[in-house]
Design brief:
The complex is a heterodimer of chains A (621) and B (249). Chain A is mainly α and 621 residues long. In chain A, the strands form 2 sheets. Chain A has a 4-stranded mixed beta sheet with strand order 2-1-3-4, sandwiched between helices. Chain A is rod-shaped and about 215 Å long. Chain B has 249 residues and is of the alpha/beta class. Chain B has a single domain, classed as P-loop containing nucleotide triphosphate hydrolases (Rossmann fold), CATH 3.40.50.300. Chain B is built from 9 helices and 10 strands. In chain B, a hairpin with a 2-residue loop joins β9 and β10. Classes of the chains: A mainly alpha (621), B alpha/beta (249). Chains A and B meet through α1 and α10 of A and α3 and α4 of B.
């Protein structure tokens, strides 16, 4: 009853104070409505993008693309930067040589430079993302076309190479055929050589024999010439003797009988051909009818009487004539033999040449066969490599263009598809609004109570003194909770946030969050004696809570201690809980729910209430 | 079984009925704040119908004594016996028998007179709304009972403050400079109410206005250096200012 009494009194006092009503009740409601209005649309408008071009780039398409939310403003670079600093434009875009239909080359390239104000980073990056997406699509298209063209050329090249590869195989096969021909030729040459060699060697032997015979014959001829010459001398002597005998005859002188055969036998002359001793019956060479060298020399018996001198002289003359014939014959034979030997030598030298050519030809053929084998191996290797390369390139068809440009396709799947930005931001927004309102309301309401003249009398009332701060707390919570309900209605109706589908959880955490921050505000009011100090401290506290509230920067980017502080921040717990309930339908309590968060806030509330009661009591005293 | 609280209440209720026998005995009250000894053994007695004025130089301990009597501060030593019972042992009980009229119009400006009365009646557990209405009538605030307190006149505010201090029918009324800032007419009005409603009570007031005490009080205690330097009553009260000047010189 007394709490109800307190409750009613607080309501009256608060709602009859226009300042309180204006600042603590109406203003937050207006703020909530303004938020609903301000964030009801996600459309961006009034964007100005400064564009710096070299005149060669057609941006008609881009202009059409941005026309729904802004416009392109042609500028030079210094103008654009100045405008960006003044925030007259939101972004400066420097483009050059972007591929268009008019300037498409085989390999079109271009560049885009984005200059943005990082003070307005979020908006700027959002704009850049949109434009990049536009250009990215274009760039992708161009790249894909170019790549398809390149791949097409590659395919043509592959076709050409494939054709040449067939030529190579043809050459290979022809080479193998040549090789076979060479092998056959080699075999033929070998057979020819094999047939040739025996005859060759035979002829070589014959040549040697002929040379030997020729040498011997020449020796024999020389010897025979010597003999003939000696015989001539002998004849000359005999002629002289004959003459003498004639004279003698005239004078009756008797000469010994000389047997020429015996003389020949005693001369030890040999047949130059068959090396047989020249005797009374001498045959040069073989005894065939065809042997031009056959001659018979029969050494006559020379009469020994002087009376036969005149016959001797004629015999000597005959002998001399025969010797001369023999000499001529020998010379002729020698000449013929020499000629024949020379011819044979010539023929044999030609045969030598043939053999040499055969050998060289065979060697060359072997060499060619080896080289052909090596070439074929090499051709096979090259062919295999070509096959390999062709196989690896075979899959490069123009249809792959898109895949090459985007080898790794990225998909961005959001956890909450279709969620508007305001829906995603509402948990944070709601927590912040309730935090600010509760903190300030709790503080100011308590300051009003503490500094009210009635506080003196209240302190003398026969009641537990916790009645007043608790009553104030409950009153503040009730009023702010009503404001929270207005916020939820605005969210539901104007922002499209389905708060009422999760009303239980949202209401619970709103209540807990409000309680915590009302108590913080009350604590600051009790702890600090002056109104100004208290309000300043409360404002500062709100700022600190906001800064460490996972709003300015993600908590993960903070140092460790700051992270701990931020994670323990009731605002952060409230934001998280709102988000879980609203966006993911988490249960506020129960299994898998947000029990930990709820109990944490309850713990904070209890601790703060105790602090408020203790500090409040001290203040009264 | 009667609780201690109930027993105390019953005894005080009985004592309320025997208003003529209401006695207050303040004995040896001392109080220090740190090294500053503010009260050094204040002692006096009073009975129902007494209107006692406390005078003294600033810092002599008047406010402290009053705060002890209303239960704000506990005394370091000494006793406050009402009808022989030490009322300072239980501060809550003390507050039930003590009414306090402040100099600052200690009520909610944003509540009407009636709402203030009913609010404090609620705090004191008073359920007799008719009595509250009578009280408002007695202090002359019946007509503006539904006017916001901030909008009533200074004199009305003083009377409202006084009326609130009577919501729970205290037997001991402490008036802390109740007429500060009021003009003589309003002062007279105020004292008219006090005399009417305080006759069955012990009224102890503090004031800087000597003439007010001389005129409206039956006894005067001059406090000096934390103790009662002089007590005047009856005709001697007329020389209060002289005695006061002599005492504080």
């Amino acid at each position: 009853m007394k709490l109800l009494n307190e409750f009613r009194k607080n309501f009256r006092v608060m709602f009859r104070n226009w300042m309180t009503v204006s600042l603590l009740i109406i203003a937050p409601l207006i703020l909530i409505l303004l938020i609903g209005y301000a964030f009801s649309s996600e459309d961006v408008t009034g964007i100005k993008i400064g564009v710096i071009t070299n005149g060669s780039t057609d941006l008609t398409q881009l202009a059409q693309n941005v026309s729904s939310y802004g416009e392109l403003v042609p500028m030079n670079d210094s103008e654009c930067l100045a405008a960006l600093e003044r925030q007259d434009v939101h972004l400066c875009l420097e483009v050059s040589n972007l591929p268009t239909e008019s300037n498409t080359t085989d390999f079109p390239t271009g560049s885009i430079t984005y200059v943005y104000d990082n003070v307005r980073k979020r908006l700027s990056l959002s704009l850049i993302e949109g434009i990049k997406s536009f250009f990215g699509e274009q760039a992708d298209e161009v790249s894909i076309e170019t790549t398809e063209s390149i791949l097409n050329n590659i395919q043509n090249l592959l076709g050409f190479i494939n054709d040449r590869k067939q030529d190579v195989l043809t050459i290979r096969n022809e080479t193998l055929n040549i090789k076979q021909d060479l092998i056959s030729r080699n075999q033929t040459l070998t057979e020819v050589r094999n047939d040739f060699l025996p005859a060759y060697f035979e002829i070589k032997d014959l040549q040697e024999q002929t040379h030997n015979i020729s040498g011997t014959l020449e020796e024999q001829l020389n010897a025979t010439s010597v003999v003939v010459s000696e015989a001539r001398q002998s004849i000359a002597s005999l002629r002289e003797v004959s003459l003498n005998y004639s004279l003698l005859a005239l004078s009756n002188v008797t000469l010994p009988i000389v047997n020429i055969s015996d003389a020949f036998n005693a001369s030890n002359l040999t047949d130059p051909i068959n090396s047989s001793p020249i005797n009374g019956s001498y045959t040069m060479g073989n005894n065939s009818e065809n042997n031009p060298f056959t001659t018979n020399i029969t050494a006559p018996t020379i009469a020994s009487s002087v009376t036969e001198v005149p016959t001797l002289g004629s015999l000597l003359d005959g002998l001399g004539g025969h010797l001369a014939e023999l000499d001529d014959l020998l010379n002729d034979t020698n000449g013929k033999v020499s000629g024949t030997v020379a011819q044979m030598d010539d023929i044999i030298s030609k045969l030598d040449l043939v053999k040499l050519l055969l050998d060289e030809d065979l060697a060359a053929t072997q060499e060619y066969l080896i080289k052909i084998d090596e070439s074929v191996v090499r051709i096979d290797e090259v062919s295999a490599q070509m096959d390999q390369q062709l196989a690896s390139l075979a899959d490069l068809h123009p249809g792959l263009g898109e895949k090459l440009i985007k080898p790794i396709t990225s998909q961005y799947l959001v956890l909450l598809p279709g969620a508007k930005n305001i829906q995603l931001a509402f948990p944070q927004l709601a927590a912040m609004i309730l935090m600010f309102i509760a903190l300030l309301f709790g503080n100011i309401a308590t300051l009003m109570e503490v500094h009210d003249a009635a506080a003196v009398r209240n302190s003398l009332a026969p009641v537990k003194q916790w009645l007043f701060p608790v009553g104030l707390m409950l009153t503040s919570i009730a009023i702010i909770f009503l404001q929270a309900m207005v916020l939820f209605v605005v969210a539901q109706t104007m922002l499209g946030v389905s708060v009422f589908a999760h009303f239980g959880g949202m209401a619970l955490f709103a209540l807990l969050l409000i309680t915590v921050f009302v108590l913080i505000g009350m604590l600051l009011a009790y702890a600090l004696p002056s109104v100004q100090a208290s309000i300043l401290a409360t404002t500062f506290m709100a700022l600190v809570v906001f800064i460490f509230g996972n709003v300015m920067a993600p908590v993960e980017s903070m140092p460790h201690l700051a992270q701990l502080a931020t994670n323990a921040n009731p605002l952060v717990i409230g934001q998280y809980s709102f988000g879980q309930v609203l966006l993911y339908g988490a249960n506020a309590i129960g299994a898998g729910g947000l029990g930990a968060q709820a109990w944490t806030l309850v713990g904070y509330a209890i601790a703060l209430l105790i602090a408020v009661l203790v500090v409040g009591k001290r203040r009264r005293h | 079984m009667v609780s201690r609280k109930d027993a105390t209440t019953v005894s005080l209720e009985e004592k309320r009925e025997k208003s003529d026998n209401l006695t207050l005995a303040v004995s040896g009250i001392t109080k220090s704040f740190g090294n500053n000894k503010v009260l050094r053994g204040v002692s006096f007695t009073a009975k129902s119908g007494d209107i006692i004025g406390l005078v003294g130089k600033s810092g002599c301990g008047k406010s402290t004594l009053l705060k002890i009597l209303v239960g704000w501060h506990p005394a370091d030593t000494g006793t406050v016996l009402m009808n022989g019972e030490n009322i300072t042992k239980d501060p809550l009980q003390l507050r039930r028998v003590v009414g306090y009229t402040t100099q600052d119009n200690s009520f909610y400006a944003k509540q009407t007179a009636l709402e203030n009365m009913r609010y404090y009646a609620g705090l004191y557990g008073v359920k007799d709304m008719e009595r509250l209405d009578k009280l408002l009538k007695a202090v002359g605030l019946w007509d503006p009972r539904n006017t916001l307190s901030e909008r009533i006149s200074g004199g009305m505010k003083r009377r409202l403050d006084f009326a609130i201090s009577l919501v729970h029918e205290p037997k001991l009324l402490i008036l802390d400079e109740p007429t500060a800032g009021l003009d003589p007419l309003l002062i007279e009005q105020f004292w008219g109410v006090v005399k009417k409603l305080g006759k069955d009570r012990i009224v102890i007031m503090s004031s800087h206005i000597i003439s007010e005490i001389e005129r409206y009080c039956g006894r005067a205690l001059i406090l000096k250096d934390g103790a009662v330097a002089m007590e005047l009553s009856g005709k001697k009260l007329k020389g209060l200012e002289k005695e006061f000047r002599r005492a504080v010189a």
